[in-house]
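assembly run, all chains below
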Amino acid sequence: MINQIQLVLKPGVRDNKAERIIREAKNYLKIDTGKVKSTRLFNINYDLSRDQVKEFAEKGLRDSIINDYYINSLFKDKMYNSYVLVAKLPGVTDDEGISAQKTLADLFDLDIDVKRQHIFSQELYLFEKKLAKVTLYELADKLLGNKLINHFEYGEIPENILYIPEVKIKEHTTGETIDLNVSDGELMNISKERLLSLNLAEMQAIKGHFESEDVIADRIKKGISKAITDCELEVLAQTWSEHCKHKEFGALINYRNEETGEELEIDSLFKTYIKGSTDKVIQRFEAVGNNWLKLVFTDNAGVVQIDDERVFVWKVETHNSPSAIDPYGGAITGILGNNRDPLGTGIGGAQLLFNTNVLCFGPPDYDKPLLPGQLHPRRIFEGVRKGIEDGGNKSGIPTINGSIIFDERYSGKPLVYCGTGGVMPMKYGEKVSWSKDIDPGDLIIMAGGRVGKDGIHGATFSSAEIDENSPQSAVQIGSPITQKLLSDYMQEAVLLGLIKCSTDNGAGGLSSSIGELAEIPGGAEVHLEKVPLKYANLMPWEIYISESQERMTFVVEEKHYPALLKLADEREVELSRVGIFTDSGFIEVKYSDIPVAFLDIDFLHNGYPRKLMEAVWKKPDLSEPEIAEDINHNEIILELLSNWNICSRESVIRQYDHEVKGKTVIKPLMGSTGRAPQDAAVIRLDFESWKGIAVSNGISPKYGDIDAYQMSAGAFDEAIRQIISIGGQLPDPESKDIIFWSVNDNFCVPDSFYDAKTNPDGKMKLAKLVQMNQALYNMATYYNIPMTSGKDSMKNDFKSGDTKISVPPTILYSMTALISDIRKTVTSDFKSADDLIYQIGETYDELGASEYYKHMGYLGKNVPQVRMEKAKEIYKKVMEANNKGLISSSHDMSDGGLAVCLAECLLGSNLGAEISMNNKELSGAALLYSESHSRFVVSIDPENKGTFEAIMGESATYIGKVTDRAKLEISINGNELINLSSDMLEQYWSKTLREI
Amino acid sequence: MIGKQEMKKVKSLVVTGYGINCERELAAAYKLAGSEAQIVHLNDVFLGKVKITDFDILNFPGGFSFGDDLGSGKVLANKMKYKRMADGELFYNVILEFIEAGKFVFGICNGFQFLVKMGLLPNVGNEHAQEVTLTLNDSGKFEDRWVYCKTNPELVTPFLKGIGKIALPVRHGEGKLIIKDEQIVKAIKDKKLNCLSYTDSEGNITAEYPLNPNGSDLDCAGMCDETGQVFGLMPHPEAFLSIYNHPDWGRMKRLHPELADDGEGLKIFKNIVEHIKER
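ok done. output:
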C-alpha cells in the first residue's frame, strides 16, 4: 500500500516560500492568489506498518519545532480554496525522495535498495482564492514548476491527491537495423526523424562505409547485421555532432574581406588560430627550457604547472540550449558537468578549487510577446542563477567570479558559461597526473548515477536550433549530492592508486566517453546489460548514449578492481563493470551477448566529411552621432550606474558561496561596506604558502556590432588588464620562472553556415568568426598567453515559425594566472583620504558601442581599438609599481568608462574623490564615458608619489585626490560636471537588480 | 634535552563525507592552532576503523549533508541518531559518552544544524530532545555575507574565551534559529547558552537585516550546552584564518601595515586547543 505523509508548517512559523509565491504571482503574472500555504508530500511506495509510518513521519521527516504532519489524510483549512500539486515527471531526479529513503533505511535498519525510487517527494500549494483552472496552470508552469520536468494537478481541493510518477516502458527487442540503401531525400528523413542532426554528406558517408565489402565481410564474421543498427547510427550521430567534433572550427573556409580585398583559405580555425597560437607560445617557452604547459586541448581540461609539486587544471564550458528550456536544470547540469572535466583530466581526481560563471541574458524587463517555447528572460535569469547557486554551494566549490551581460538578442537562447579550476599533484605514485595510459585488458568501469532516458540526444540537440518541439528528454536535472559523493570517492581512490585514468560522461554519455578512451588502446568491448538503470526496458542504444548525469568512466586494472569496489561500497557510490579495453580496432557493443554495434574506431572518429564554408566581410556603413554638449552629467552617470549592464550584481553574488574553502582573497565584492566590485578574483592555493591564482573574464559582445576583430581583441585585453590590475605578472618567455597563464576561449555564435534561404547573412557571420579568431591569434602570440582548452557553440539561434532570435557573435576569454604572493594583490576600492588618484593609459574618442551611446540611442562608429604594443608597455609599468607595493587601489576601466570606474572605486568605502582634468582635445563625454581599452584608475599613498611617477612616466596622469567628503566631484577644464554623494551613486547602482 | 617537558598533543577529529564540504579549512584551522587534525569519513567511524574516543575534539564541519534535503542537517542527524555502527552500538551513544568523558564537540553551520537537530544543543532539558531548530532565513535566500558578532558577557564555553567582538562570514540559507517555547528561551538565557549574537558594527545586538542575516530568535549566532563542551555556530570561523579572508583587508593593511596576517576566526581554535593543553 502507498502511504502518504504531508508536512505542514506549524501556525505562526513564517512561510517564506508562500510569501515569495504571493509576491511573484502578483508582480510577474498579475495573479492575486490571496494567502498561500506551502506543504510537502512524501508518497511512500514501500511496505511499512502503520506504526512505522508514524515513526518515520515523527522522527525521520518532520522538524518537531516547525512542522505538523498528516498521514494519509491531507491538511485541511477552510481558508484555502484551490491547489496546485507539483510532482516530478516519471524518471526525473528526485533527491529529496532518495534522501528520505536513506533516512528510512537508517531509522529501521532496513536493507532498502536506496538507488531505486520508493519515496516520491512533491510540493502541494494551497491558495486562498478560488482560482480558475487556467490560472492555476499558469501559476504551476510559470512560477512553481516547468511542464518539461513536472507533473501538475490543480483545481478545487479534493479529498485525496495521490500521484506516483512511475516510469513505464514496454518491453522491446534489443534494437533494429536501418536500411540506408535509399534516396538522398530518404536519408535526410532518417536523420530528421531520429533527431540525428546529420547532414546529407554525413549520411552518405555512413551509407558508403556500410556498403564497403571489407566492412560487410567483418560484420558477417562478427555475426552482426549487414545493415547499420540503430545503436551504430546513434553513436555516429553523437560522435560526429558539432558538439563533439567541432566540425565548423575544423572546416575549410574561404574568407574574403571586401573592405581590403584580402582573400584567404583557412584550413581549420582551430588549427590555424587557436592551436596555432598556443603552439607558438609553447615553442618560445620550451626554447628556454621552461615547460610549464603540460597538456593542451587533448583532454577534458588544460593542464599547466604551478610548482614542483602541483599542476593547475582549467576548463570553461557552455550549457546554452538546455538552459533555454529548463534554466535551473540546464545551469546546474552545466556547472556539475563542467566540474567533471577537471575531475576527469589525465588520471583524474583533481581537487576542485573554484567555479566561475559568465551569463548572457535578455533584459529582465523584456516586454515583447514570447514566442512558443520561449521562456521570459527574467525566468531564465532566476532559474540559471538558482542552478549555479545549488551546483556550486552544494558541492562546496566557491563561485569566485563571474559576469552577467544583458542584451535583447540573448532572449531566445541565453549563454551560460561555466568554468572550474582544480589542482592535481604533479604525480600520483610514479606517474604524472595528466597521463592517460590505457592497455588492452583494462576494465571499463562506470561510476555514479544510474542511467535513464535523461538527456538523450543532448549532443545533437545543442548542435541544432531550438524550436517548440524540442524533445523533452533533452532536459536533465542534476544531483549535486550524488556528484559530491562521487567526486570525494574518486579523489580518495586516485590517491590510493586504484584508478589508471578517467573521463567524464557528458554529451553522448558512455558512447562518447568510451569512444574517446578506446582510441588510446585501439578498441573496446562493452556489455550494456551491465549498466545499472533507473528503470527497466531502455533500448540498448538509449543506454549507450544516455546523458544521465553524475557519472564518470574509470579505466581500472583488474587487480585493483576489488579494492575499488569495496571503497565504493563504503562511500555509497555505485560502480559497474561495463566492459574491457581491447586493441581490436573496433568498438564492439553487446547486450546480453547480442551484438548491437560494431564500429571501426578510425571511421568513428575520422570518417565524417569535412565541411566547406564561405565567409565574406563587408564593412558596415556606420557614422558617429552628433550630441549637443550641454548634457547633465549628474543624470547621465546615475542612469549609467543603474543600467542593466553596469548595475550592482550584489543580489546575485550574495547567493553564491564565494568563500567556502576559506581561500578566497579577492572576492567579487570587497571594501569596508562589502560592495565594491572587483576586477579579477584571487584565490589561495593552500594554507601553507602565499601562492594563489587570479581569475578574470573578458567578454564584450557589444563592440562586435561595429567590429568583430576589435571586439575579440578587446575582450582579450579586458581579461589581461583585470589580472594586471590586481597585481598579476605577464608571462615572460625570457625567464625560467613559472608564471603560468592558462586561458579557455569560448565562442558562442549564431548559425554561420550560409544558406540562401534560411541563413542569408551566414557568410558575414562566419567572417566575423574568422576575425574574432584572428584577434585571438594576434593577442595570444603577442602576450605569450596560451589557450589551453575551450569550446565552441555554433548554433545559438532560437527559432519559432518564421521568427529567429540569434545571439550576437560572442567570445569569452576566461583567464587564469599564477600569483606568487597574494599579500601583494590590490583591490579596487579607494583606501584612504588624501591618496592621489591617477588615470593610467590614454583615453581616445572611442564612444562607439559604449554604454553612453547606447543610453543616448546611438551605436556610433569609433569602437575602442586595442593598441597592444602601447598596452604591454603600460602593463609592464603597472607590474613594476605593484612589485614595489606602490599602488593602494586599482580598478580597470570598462563599461561606462572613467566616470563609472571612479564611482565604483567609491562604492566600497565611505570616501569621496575630487577629480580635475584639463583636456581641450576630447569632449567631456569622451573623457568621462569613452571605453578605450588598457586603462586603470589607481590611487597611491602620497608618500609614493615620486617613485610611482618615475616608473609610470607619461603612462599615468594625475587626476585628483581621495577625500573624506563621500562625494564624487569631477571638473573638466575648470567646469564642474559631476557632483554627487557616494550614497546617491550607491543607491542608483544597487537598485536595479534588487528590484526585480 | 634538558628538562623540556613534552607538550600535550591535542587531537582533533574532523569528520567528512555525505556532502560535508568545509573539512579541509577546518583541519587547517586546528593545525594552525597547534593541534593535530585528522579528516575522517563518517562511514569509517561507523565501520569502527577510527574511534572518536582517540580524540579530544569531535568536529562537524559545514556543507550540505545529503544536499540538505528534508531540511538542513536533518538526514545526517537521523543517520547519527539511528544508525548502528559495525559493532552494533548506536553512534549517538558513543557521542554522548564522548561528551560525558569531558571532551569537546564543535559544529559549524551545517554541523551546528545537525547538533541542534540531534538534540545535543542547547539541551536545557538534559534529555537530548530537539529544543530549537535552524531553518529558512527570513530573506528566503542563501546568503554569503560578513557579519559582526559578540560573545555573551558571561561565558560558559572555552571556545569563545577573550573573543568579545568578532567579524565572520555567514554562508547559509537555513540559519534562522527558532526556539520551541518561552520556557526554553528562558532557560537558554538564564544559563547563558546563547553565547554568540549578531550585532551592528558598534557591537549592539540587533535584529536588523542584514546585520542579523537570518532573523534568529535572540539574534543568536551560536550556542553551547551547559557544560560548554558542545558548541555550534552559524558563521564560519574556519573561513577567517587569515586577514586576507576579510573583505576589507586591503584598507586594513593600507592603514595599519603592522597588522598580523592571522584572521580573527583562528582565535576560537587556539582557545580550545590551549584549553585542552592546559587541563
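The first helix of chain B runs from residue 23 to 32.

Chain B touches chain A through 72 residues (CB under 8 Å).

not gonna interpret more than that til we talk
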